[in-house]
Structure formats: structure tokens, C-alpha cells
Specification:
The chain is mainly β.
């Protein structure tokens, strides 16, 4: 019995020292994290005894990468209002504070202003894409987008569960038409 306890303690101490050594070695992977990244442990392996941990730089904006479903409207200068329910996708933009926002199938670059607020801007950009005009027809043309948005936690009424709310407000211009897009979804 005494030998069993010593053996278990010895195995524990050896395992703990291996874990600490691997963590300190993998910490070197995070020396080059920028201020838009955090160093997080990533598990590798596929079994109870075959698990290793490495530390990697992970974007703090990855928490926003997902599909948002919500209400979308376009208001044109002549007063025409186009409403629809759509999905908006936010995905990795490959650069620290940028993401790709896919709105009506059009990929826009959004730039986050800081690491914590969830506020972003849609810098003025022209893309060839699809949009619904004021006659409710879908057209493919060059579209100029510019605006802003935010992603915030929103506690649902009478629940303990938080939801993430995406809000987008931007202008669109095409064929000398000017409109305002508003989207809100989670």
C-alpha cells in the first residue's frame, strides 16, 4: 500500500513537471502576439494519454466570427423602403483589427476601432456586387459602401442568457442612387 502511494505521487510529480516544462516552452510561441491577440492554450492529441498543450496567439476578435440573423432595410432617397430578413456573416480578415462582413453576398472590410468596445467602421469601399434597387429588382453593379456598426452583448429580457447583437448603419451608392442600410440581428 505504501509503495502504491509513493508510485502515484511520483507519477503525479513527473507528469506535473512535464506539463510545466511544455507550457513554459510553448509560451515562446506567444512572444510575437500583437495587441489584437491573446496567448491561449490549444490542446493537441487524440487520446487520454496523447494530449499536449501549446500556447498560440489567437485574435481577440475571433469571438465575433459567426453568422447573424436579423432584420435588414434599405431606405432610398425617394422614400422607397426595402425590408427583408437576412443572414450576415463575419469572418477572419487576415489582419489584426480587420474582419470580413458579408452583407447580401457582398464582402466588405470592417475595421475595429479598439479591442474591447465592439465598434467598427466600414471604410469607403467600392465593390462589384448585388443589391436590391428601389424597384425591388436585384441588380449587379459597382456599389460604394461606407458606415459603421457595433457588436455588443445584450441580455435578453427575463433570462440569464446574453445574446450578441450586431448593428450596421451604412450608406450605399450605385447608378447615382443613394440609400441607407440598417441591419440589426443576433
Amino acid at each position: 500500500m505504501y509503495k502504491l502511494i509513493i508510485t502515484k505521487k511520483l507519477i503525479f510529480i513527473i507528469s506535473l513537471s512535464i506539463f510545466i516544462t511544455s507550457c513554459s516552452e510553448s509560451q515562446e510561441n506567444c512572444e510575437e502576439c500583437n495587441n489584437w491577440e491573446e496567448c491561449l492554450p490549444i490542446t493537441n492529441g487524440n487520446g487520454t494519454w496523447d494530449v499536449t498543450f501549446t500556447m498560440e496567439c489567437i485574435s481577440i476578435l475571433d469571438k465575433y466570427n459567426r453568422t447573424y440573423n436579423g432584420y435588414h432595410n434599405i431606405t432610398y432617397e425617394d422614400g422607397t423602403l426595402i425590408n427583408s430578413n437576412i443572414n450576415v456573416l463575419i469572418s477572419d480578415g487576415g489582419i489584426s483589427n480587420k474582419r470580413i462582413l458579408t452583407l447580401n453576398g457582398n464582402d466588405l472590410i470592417i475595421v475595429f476601432s479598439d479591442q474591447e468596445s465592439g465598434n467598427f467602421i466600414i471604410t469607403k469601399q467600392s465593390i462589384f456586387g448585388t443589391i436590391v434597387n428601389q424597384h425591388n429588382n436585384t441588380v449587379n453593379t459597382n456599389i460604394v459602401y461606407e458606415g459603421s456598426g457595433s457588436i455588443v452583448k445584450n441580455q435578453a429580457n427575463n433570462t440569464q442568457q446574453d445574446t450578441i447583437l450586431l448593428t450596421i448603419n451604412c450608406t450605399v451608392e450605385f447608378y447615382n442612387n443613394l440609400g441607407a442600410i440598417n441591419f440589426q440581428g443576433n
